[in-house]
Design brief:
Helix content: 40-55%
Shape: elongated
Number of strands: 23
Organism: Azospirillum himalayense
Radius of gyration: 53 Å
Strand content: 15-25%
Largest sheet: 6 strands, antiparallel
Number of helices: 16
Domain Response regulatory: 581-698
Domain Histidine kinase: 345-558
EC number: 2.7.13.3
Strand order of the largest sheet: 2-1-6-5-4-3
InterPro entries: CheY-like_superfamily, HATPase_C_sf, HATPase_dom, His_kinase_dom, HisK_dim/P_dom, HisK_dim/P_sf, Sig_transdc_His_kin-like_C, Sig_transdc_resp-reg_receiver
Length: 712
Amino acid sequence: MIRLSVNALLNFHPKAILAAIVLVMTLLGGVAWGALSLVDYVSTLDRAEHGTRQAAAFLEGHADAVLDGAAAALARVADRLEEGGIASLPDHALGEALAASRFGALSILDAGGRTVFGPSIHPDGGTSGLFQGADGALELLHGQVDGLDSILMVRRILGREGILEGVVLLALPSSTLHTVLDVFGDGRHSVAGLFRLDGTRLAGIGGAVVGPLPTLEPGEESGESDWTVGGDGVVIGLKRMRDFPAVAAVALPRNVVLEPWSSRLQHGFMMVGVSVVALFGLAALGWASLRREAAARDALRDANARLEQRVEERTADLRSLNQKLVRALAEKERANQAKARFLSAANHDLRQPFQALRLFHHLLMERLKETRERSIAEKMGEALDSGEKLLHALLEVATLDAGVVRPNIAEVPVATVLDSAAAEFRGLAADKKLDLRVRGCPAMVRTDATLLTRMLGDLLRNAIAYTPAGGVVVGCRRRGQWLRIEVWDSGSGIAAEHLDAIFEDFVQLGNPERDRRRGLGLGLPKVRRKAALLGHAVEVRSRPGRGSVFSIMVPLAASESRTDAAAPAPAGRAEDTDTRLILVVEDDPVQSAGMQLLLESWGHDVLVAADGPAALATLRAAPRCPDVILSDFRLPGPLTGAETVTRAAEQEGRPIPGIILTGDTAPERIREAVAVGCRLLHKPVTPDVLRDALNALGTERQPVRHSQSSAA
């Protein structure tokens, strides 16, 4: 089997293929146009049939309203006459006859055909047809009254023995239906009116006969798109009246119905002709272009060969560059991970001695009485404070990176945040003789008040540090649904090439000697991390020698209020004077001894263990379950401090409050410590912070074990 590609076919028979394409497109277009025309033809007839059925229903409803009252009046007259006979007309039925006359001409004939009441009525076919039939059912006929076309309602009067005694006729002028029939007198409808069941017209326009009607139940509708009236094709709609032996019919000539379709068909012929001519014109152009294409194909083949060679050369160069870039990115990632591990390990290892120093410094200050000796101890405390500031800054960065900070988003008055942030730095600005001004703003925003206050504090600290003279201004600007909080300074400014670098960790411009009095280079990185956590945008604009503007974009609250939210009063420290049994789990003997001395100085009983298994063994030998477990996070052996608290609760059969002390600021370590539900404190911990944590755990006492055997 020979398989030819498209290119091969074009090379061998381009003109034949072009001719085949033109022929196929012409045939497909013709078939599609014919199918659409046929669908349009059927749809046109269906719409016309539906319209005539609706019109017939409308005509039937109006005719029923006209005939209903007259039929009821005629029935009352006939019923009276059947009770007493024709002779009782003056005594029994005269009133009903006169009342029925308001609907039309009422006439009463006796069995001989003589008129005994009312005017002469001339039905089509003569009066002899009125007496044919032996029942008293209502019939409808067409007739004349005083030369006017009328609908005759006929009711035969049968005596008590069933003998025909006469006929009652009520003639309704055809003009009573003209209100509706005039609607169909627009020249488009060939038939519109009421017809007897045999097809004879009672009233209306058009032919007197519509031919044999189909058998319809009372209230039933019907329609035909292929009906003949007077030899002409029509589209007819029919509806049988519910209470009368008549049918409402409305018919439209087929040539009128199909006139729009014929017009569309003619336009379609014209469009098809134009399309065919255009198609053959395009084919001629394509025929001519095939010759030019053959020449261009050869030139293109040569150009493609040269281009492919150049692409291969460039691809090889790019592949080499990509490999170098991948290696560089991998090296950068490894360097970042190594830096993070180094900072975490250094942070943890530095916190351990700081924690012991803080505990012993507190104990030492309580025992020193001489002023000179206390002065030396206070200097040592200042040195500890300086080191702890660095450790706390590293902790805050690590906590933000760990993702354990959950912002408390609420509607916050901006004025409260600005005043709180500025109040902390007014003294620092005054020391440098700087003018610190806050421009009030009554807006309400959706944010975390604490985190936003810290962000503004870092920006103010940075602005004051780098502003030698002049002042710092804090204000707000509305930007649509956002509020732009800005911190302006008149400092030395920042060069454009350094605007991105200042948000990186430990980057300080103009401080190559790393003077710690000028900060650590972590303020702006912390602002960037908190802004990302809150979904706020941080921007900076600066002109060297003129100053800088740092701004935070905060979303406005849905409903703003100028009334500051009442801040809850700070709760006082609850002093715990009860003696507790506290289990201290710490592998560093220096810190363990310092912690034991501190807790015992507060009046607590202390148990000490070096690791998790030793702590569990100490619990089994203890006289009662401890009130609190105070444990380091990293412990030698198989258990961490968090796992030790969990295992102790399982061993005792009840939860035991726990406080986890850790110097590890790695994000994954922080997440693990928070997940166990214990209170988390980062080293170095001051005695006041530790006392507050113990007081916050409550004062519930654990039961005393009576004996080891009873416990078992």
